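Hi W.,

Here's what went into the run:
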Amino acid sequence: MTCRLGASVEQQQILAQYPDADLAVDVIWMPMLPSDARDKWDSQFLTDPRVTQLWDAERLVGRWVAQEESLQLGDTGAVVWDAFLLFGPEATWESAPAGLLAWGTPIVGRVPQLMDALEPLLTQETPATAMLPAALAFPDRKESVVGTYGHFVA
Amino acid sequence: MIVRRFMSVVAGLLLVFVVLVGHPAAQQATPTPTPAAPTLSDLTDVEQLRALFNQQHGTPRLLLLISPT
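Here's what came out:
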């Protein structure tokens, strides 16, 4: 439930707050708990058209991300889940994705860090906003609280 | 006589037209497009995610790794 709660926060704080922002959200659903199954996926949970949803029955992505040579996230355990990974618009994926801006786990506890990294990307296309001091441009910005599992790469 | 009958037919058609156009159902003739329902695609290879990722180049990308319950 905590995992879903994290995703719900994403939807409410990001997608709903920036309905016109150019953002792609790729959600990889994985069975991690005994109660998890493909038919437990709720089609009404994330309804924003910017969201692409994939069912990863074998936890391939979670295991791949956990490998040190993939994203160099450090000691993450065998499978990375209940996690977010944020990439900028110029990021490309050759042998591994380059341009990781931020990542964190669990999601629900790392939303302030995510918002700090994400908001400039969502608002940078508005010239008027770009000219404002940060305090005026992002009046709702939360103070960054760097936690044990909140990581900024750049 | 023929002209008068013709005029009354035209008037009748106009009346029908006005009634139909003014009807609420006619005013909703252009429905608002409903967003596509979310879908869940099976991922069987990390390569699928890589292709999707590169397809979205030029856009900030947020990957969420989560479980359904």
